[in-house]
Amino acid sequence: MPAPDSPSPPPSDGPKRTWAYARPPSPTPANPPTDATTTTPPPANPEFKSNPSLTDAVTTIKPNDFLSVHQTPCAQRGFLTGISAGMGIGGLRWVLGLSLPRAANWAVGAGVAAAAAQYEWCQFRRRVEREKMVRMVKVYNARQAAEKEKAEGGSRGEEGRDKKGEVGGSPEAGKGGWKFW
């Protein structure tokens, strides 16, 4: 019987997904932990396996997953790169004298390798772009805050200079005046 405060498994519509129990739920903002020493580990879930097997992983795959694989980022470019590299390498190996089955093996191997390399390269570029965007947002927010602070501080400073200029009657009286040349 699971502990009363452990997360309950989702309703069973199909095969059990072991990845759903991989991470404990994050603490809610209404009840954050007060100190790192006072936090307790989440209770052990009896259905969670520490080392899921290959069959557990395969049972989590649904037929609809195969229908939407082309919609994942970078997959389409990876597939096209793999197809063209496989055709190029396989065709070249066949023209250079390899038998058709061996050339086909080369084509499949080259296609898979090229698709995986292109997919990983695309994912790397996406990570770099995401990091750049985060930095740009931080810089933009800091610049906006500085401009807002400057505008608030500048309006106060102009009021002070106007008062100094009015008292002295000349622009040099405020010491922020102008010179002829």
Automatic annotation (TrEMBL):
Ranges where the record places region Disordered: 1-53, 145-181
Signal peptide: none
UniProt cross-references to InterPro entries, sorted A to Z: Cox20
Location (main, coarse): mitochondrion
Basic and acidic residues bias locations: 145-166
Biased composition range(s): Pro residues: 1-13
Subcellular location: Mitochondrion inner membrane
One example of a Gene Ontology biological process annotation: mitochondrial respiratory chain complex IV assembly
Keyword Transmembrane helix attributed: yes
One GO term describing the cellular component: mitochondrial inner membrane
Protein's UniProt keywords contain Transmembrane: yes
UniProtKB keywords: Membrane, Mitochondrion, Mitochondrion inner membrane, Transmembrane, Transmembrane helix
Transmembrane segments: none
Function: Involved in the assembly of the cytochrome c oxidase complex.
Similarity field: Belongs to the COX20 family.
Official protein name in the record: Cytochrome c oxidase assembly protein COX20, mitochondrial
Organism field: Schizothecium vesticola
